[in-house]
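pipeline/complex-builder :: batch 7 item 3
reading input block
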Amino acid sequence: MPTAYNEITGRSIERLAALSDGIFAVAMTLLVLDLHVPASEVIHGQGDLWRTLAGAVPQFISYVMSFMTLGIFWNGQQAQLNSFTRSDRHLSWIHIAFLFAVSIMPFSTRLLAGFIAYRSVLIVYWGNILLLGLVLYGSWRYAIRAGLLRENVTRDRQCAVERRILVAQGLYAFGACLCLFNTYVSIGFIILVQPNFALGLRLPYLSEV
Amino acid sequence: MPTAYNEITGRSIERLAALSDGIFAVAMTLLVLDLHVPASEVIHGQGDLWRTLAGAVPQFISYVMSFMTLGIFWNGQQAQLNSFTRSDRHLSWIHIAFLFAVSIMPFSTRLLAGFIAYRSVLIVYWGNILLLGLVLYGSWRYAIRAGLLRENVTRDRQCAVERRILVAQGLYAFGACLCLFNTYVSIGFIILVQPNFALGLRLPYLSEV
Amino acid sequence: MPTAYNEITGRSIERLAALSDGIFAVAMTLLVLDLHVPASEVIHGQGDLWRTLAGAVPQFISYVMSFMTLGIFWNGQQAQLNSFTRSDRHLSWIHIAFLFAVSIMPFSTRLLAGFIAYRSVLIVYWGNILLLGLVLYGSWRYAIRAGLLRENVTRDRQCAVERRILVAQGLYAFGACLCLFNTYVSIGFIILVQPNFALGLRLPYLSEV
Amino acid sequence: MPTAYNEITGRSIERLAALSDGIFAVAMTLLVLDLHVPASEVIHGQGDLWRTLAGAVPQFISYVMSFMTLGIFWNGQQAQLNSFTRSDRHLSWIHIAFLFAVSIMPFSTRLLAGFIAYRSVLIVYWGNILLLGLVLYGSWRYAIRAGLLRENVTRDRQCAVERRILVAQGLYAFGACLCLFNTYVSIGFIILVQPNFALGLRLPYLSEV
């Protein structure tokens, strides 16, 4: 029977969650690994050191932003996994694709940190966030259609999850568009908007999200 | 009694799963870590940057392929672990050998990404995949013989797991042979075949797998 | 209903613990990754090798100190997580902020190991420890106020946790002040005080902690 | 009450196991990360590549040996953790010290791989293994004395665990002594002896272990 294998694979939400936590943990720690300590030969005093560290502030901001982004998506994914009764093979693969997007994040961040003034780099970075959002949205739609949600996930909650992903992605897209003016404006906008998702603050336009 | 120690070691499927998830998570994230950001001294404009990134596309393809391969084997291993009632010392060591093959994967991938046109490198890469398949096959055969399977794993399911490993390895071996023509043909074949395993699509020859 | 999403996100203490264990594991292992092996071209005999390794002793001390610090905070965080009945979105984000401070620790340690005689570097390192302490203290205060503690956590225990964080941070702050004399005195003080927290020894001033 | 904090910290065997699995997973994957791919500028054909890879065989052997060693100690630690009913603060710290020894293993391995013919390096490597064994032995003795073992751990099993650690360390020490002749003899001996521990084969002298 061809489907026999399908039935025994990809059922365990717990192991999917464990793999996800592992990949998020490695990706989030590797972000900060890229903060390089200046070579001791170049540094001849406290002044040199401070100047070098101060020069790394834009990089540091990229890392904080990426750590926060990964935190937001970790929260989003775990909210989804907590809402599923079980997994199937397709859902497993949707989440492996999601984890691929997570694992590229340190690369996108390094790229952004190295070339913070380049518009194209900001577009790549935003593309990474867009991919995270698209796959997570796809995961939710698929789980609804395939009947994998817990019974206590009401229609209202289903919509809340979808609306939230869409609004967040809309704001990220708007932020990315701001790079037409200046990449720093884009990054500033994203950094200002993120705490709203993280902390659930009620900014005017977001109170109903 | 000499066997006393054997009895208290290597029983816990849960910890074996946790170690596996950890090693898979690190290996899958490290893959992408090797994507280097170009040095800022070499880049004098958006054009330079795009050209450098475009030059890294073959590398990027190697990483996507390896991430997918690891995803497939993670799924395969977890399907097995979910089918065991308990572990014993031999099974633990079979899976530690499997995890060794997983941990070499970033090395094989780096080698392939660096020397994508070399036949010998493709053979090394395929050898790594073969090792993953062999050990996983050995794990399943051993578990059947040692009576470690859950009762609800029917004879049909047992065969489905074995057949799947064999067909997959047959296709990987065929793909590796294609390097007689050209290594790009090999890689193209593997990339086209993998989604079938991942998503369970029904290609003509694979519908009964 | 705006709060719908808040209700389904950030509930799972288990996944928060899993992410934390992962980030601590990666950060603690990466610490030692920075211990570089001398290049074989520079080494012409056993004498050369010993001299190079002996020169790395101050670095090694920094790593041991950081590993111990992370061990102490891992213990502190897990004691808190074990005391919570559930999480909510704010608590999740407090702990993600805590994990951010954990993930910077390898950077602070590398900085300290590279510039062990610089006062400013010691202040940065202490700032990292202070951040860990502040966020952990905030987590506990928030959990009390939001009613997230288990019922068996008595008022006495609540105070024990708070007192412990405050005394530890007081000692770390005192140690950091000692860098007015010499950074080695600071580091020596911190190394001598830490086993007290780790092993619960009863030094005169700490017996009531 | 001074002991209040001691009571709420360090109780959870599960989280200790999770941290351990994480650190083992990172350490075991990082081992192989050190296998460097030759720079493409140096390689002008398949012959060059094979010669460079063949030159890395002694390094590869060091990594296989370390992976196996970590696998053996992971098994040993998990057998212990499975035998405990609960943890206490001292036991937690004994295992954090054990994990420190685990996290140095990639450094010792890199050192051995780089200077495989140096007696002093082999002594450092053996010192690392000795430390792993000592701490694990200490953990078991402490757990017996503090009454942390499960009731079904008989006196016989207690002795089996101790005997096994002592015999293994005796063999490692003997292997290290062989470096008086030649470091390759040492390494050969350790590699030949390890599968016995891994697979529980019954060599003449070890059948009663």
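note: Chain D has eight helices and no strands.
queue -> next item
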